Amino acid sequence: MNTENRHNIPEEFLRPYSPTESEPLVYQTWETSGFFNPDICIEKGVTKADAEHFSIVLPPPNVTGTLHTGHALMLVIQDIMVRYQRMLGKKTLWIPGTDHAAIATQSKVEKLLEKEGLKKHDLGREAFLKRVEQFAQESHDTIVHQTKKMGASLDWSREAYTLDDKRNLAVRTAFKKMYDDGLIYRGHRIVNWDPKGQTTISDDELVYQEETVKFYYFKYGPFTIGTARPETKFGDKYVVMHPDDARYAQYNHGDKLTIEWINGPLEATIIKDSMIDMEFGTGVMTITPWHSKEDFDLAEKYNLDKEQIIDQYGKLLPIAGEFAGMKIKDAREKIVEKLQSKGLVEKVEENYKHNIATAERSGGIIEPQIMHQWFIDVNKPIAERNNKSLKELMQDAVNSKNIEIIPDRFEKIYFHWINNLKDWCISRQIWYGHQIPVWYKGEETYVGIEAPLEEGWVQDPDTLDTWFSSGLWTFSTLGWPEQTTDLETYHPTSVLETGHDILFFWIARMILMSTYVLGTVPFKTVYLHGMVRAANGQKMSKSLGNAAADPLDIIAKYGNDALRMAMIIGNTPGNDLKLDENNIRGYGKFGNKIWNATRFVLESIAQADFSEPVELDSEDQQSMDELNELLKVATKEMNEFKFSLAGDKLYHYFWHTFADIIIERSKKKITEGINAPSAQRLLYLQHLTLIKALHPFMPFVTEKVWGLLPKIGNETNDNKLLIIESWPTSA
RNA sequence: GGGCGAUUAGCUCAGUUGGUAGAGCAACUCAUUUACACUGAGAAGGUCAGGGGUUCAAGUCCCUUAUCGCCCACCA
Fold first, then answer.
1. Which H or E run includes A466?
2. Diameter of chain A measured on Cα atoms
3. Distance from residue A22 (CA) to nucleotide B70 (C1'), in Å?
4. Residue A718 — pLDDT band, cuts 50, 70, 90?
5. Are A19 and A558 in contact (CB under 8 A)?
């Protein structure tokens, strides 16, 4: 090319592509264009008002700090879906938001206070909540900043928070409806009590840890019982054995006998039940219904007495006699000593391994307790829903194929979880969250969306499990309980994309809430991604010193487009992704490749005259056909959520066919004047098409390049942004 | 105890309804004021964890074993 042509080429092409320079400016252009908002797309004639819709609600990150590479992966996959669908001309909505995360956020702030030597009770509920809100606000701002850096084309005008006023109204409305339908009840039931966090938690928030302890065999009357927890045994007055156990055939269900126990004689009652495993230990056990779920169930079955042994702080109650007031851990050995002195210890096994339940957030050791709490009944038939229970509604949604889970192996896991589902304890004794919309006055209870007007009512101090409000997310973000246009237009949402680790916590609960409250599924497709790990397979974390823990560091180094490609190519749903910095660097080079190919195309066509139709010669036509064929396949793959395959194809075509073959061929044709107009037109067409098709994957560099392309004939839309161009199904 | 996933080139991973294996990075040879060295051309590298089966044909489907990882579960 001669120097005259160079004047037509923007000067910045003389330097390598700089993602760090371009990306913030490009994002700003998108944001000010308003095209993240489907209403504006319709207003400006980009999208047809009656177009099909495509909607995703962003899994709201917890306001507990900053985003990590796992969030980055989620943003990348969703942004690809959203950009693709927007280019298909659909009314495309992606709603951002953050999650107050109740326990997680509160315990984070409590830990910060601890460093200042303060406890939440020193501040009081109001001041403490202020503190949490301040922390949440700061986290929110960081998260939003990071999200924008990652190029997410979210409609920020619709941003929501799980604890803002609108979502609070949704929560109160849903609670009231469930209460009126008899699905929410308050009852004395066994719950997971966290003595450290001083709150109940759900089964899903338990983390089991293996512990090696001593296992004791005690003489209990004529029987020998085994236990790892002597400190719970004070009130054990039921002794259980299998009805078919020949060793104990002489005893009948209901027989009573007096036995000598820790603090003196006790009247024990024989219970025969097949829950007992005859093979385990001596085949006999005593039960502690107040502090064990299984024992509780048995006690319910036979209407047995239940006695509390341990209080909510983990201390022994007066029933323990001389041990009352002691902490469990301190009491254990002393109790064994006493039993020893009474000759009731038969043997002690060392190194007994068992799992203890701990609280996910506080780390406290869970002590099951019978408490007065609020529950959601998952088995009660619901008249409004054909007498199906919540459990059945959840099963039907997936069984009926109204919801498809990708990869489908998670469907099995989903059903297994539902089959084992028990009533959901939704009340939490923490301050940060949606306060339960129930008021008490003496013996009276009032449940309402608004507080009762009369004097003297006191609201329940407990708050709701954070997943209660998250469960409403697909429709609370669209304005429910108001019957908004958004709700009508965008619900059920198209896709729910998230990590497979919150299948139970969140996805199942959204299905529960939506099928119950609205009678529709919350989304049609669930796409589950895997966990992001460092190249060596370690979990990403700052404490482990993995270089790539902060996505913004990667972006600063290689650009967002490179990170996106590294996260998409070679990644498959449900499987873990080991993020390799070499990989990211490699795709960073691709950005520059696109940049330089653009420069070459611009230089090559600078003198071309496209005002008259140009016929492609047979060789060039064949190249065009090949590209069209590739696009056909890539489009199919995009529709099937196979982004890895589609992205890989486009990447390779651009580099190894367009750049290596077509560009090289065109050099010869143009300089030697062999069908030069055909070569120029092919360059132009292929480049244009590939830039469009690559846009969902590498939005920044493609948008940047698009802005520098000249307007030729009717091939480009005058200065329109690439983000709202049409996806090139065929060129 | 039950269930699931992984095992493919030195490393990290793809492989779309079965049709004699691919990418990135690394390593090798050559080219070099070229749109691009963030380059090009070429070569090399795999008995697809082991064993068995179905099939004209298996990385792909079935059975089984091993190793690693994950999830679920009340064994007192």
1. helix A466-471
2. 110
3. 40
4. low
5. yes
CA of residue A489 to C1' of nucleotide B42, angstroms? 57
Torsional sign, CA A319, A321, A325, A327: negative
Q: To 10 degrees, what angle do helices A390-399 and A509-517 make?
A: 100
Predicted TM-score of the model (pTM): 0.93
What is the rounded CA–CA span in Å between residue A693 and residue A689? 6
Q: Report which of A637, A528, A537, A526 is spatially closest to residue A577, judged by C-alpha positions.
A: A537
Q: If DSSP codes are grouped into helix, strand and coil, which group holds residue A259?
A: strand
Closest-approach nucleotide to residue A589, Cα vs C1': B38
Considering only CA atoms, name the residue closest to the C1' of nucleotide B74. A294
pLDDT of residue A597: 94
Distance A592 CA to B4 C1' (A): 41
In 3-state terms, what secondary structure has residue A7? coil
Most confident of A127-131, A555-559, A707-711, A718-722: A127-131
Minimum-distance nucleotide, CA of A292 to C1': B74
Q: Which nucleotide is nearest to A591 (CA to C1')?
A: B38
pLDDT at residue A540, rounded to an integer: 52
Nucleotides of B under 7 A from a protein CB: 3-6, 11-16, 22-26, 35-36, 38-41, 71-76
CA of A563 to C1' of B15 (A): 22
Check whether A187 has a pLDDT greater than 90.
yes
Phi-psi region of A166 (alpha: psi -120 to 50; beta: other; left: phi over 0): alpha
A536: nt with nearest C1' to CA: B12
ipTM of the complex: 0.92
CA distances from A424 to A117, A193, A312, A475 (A): 35, 14, 20, 21
CA of A298 to C1' of B58 (A): 53
HSE-up of residue A473 (Cα within 13 Å, Cβ side): 33
Mean pLDDT calculated for residue range A178-203: 94
Taking the CA of residue A701 and the C1' sugar atom of nucleotide B10, their distance in angstroms comes to 33
Nucleotide nearest A662, from its CA to each C1': B35
From the CA atom positions of chain A, what is the Rg in Å?
32
Q: How far is the CA of A631 from the C1' of B20 (A)?
A: 28
Determine the pLDDT at residue A531: 84
- Report CA(A547)–C1'(B58) in Å, whole number: 41
Q: Which amino acid is at A722?
A: L
Residue nearest to nucleotide B40 (CA to C1'): A660
Residue A2 has pLDDT above 60, yes or no: no
pLDDT of A50 higher than 60: yes
Dihedral angle of Cα A112, A115, A120, A122, to the nearest 10 degrees: -150
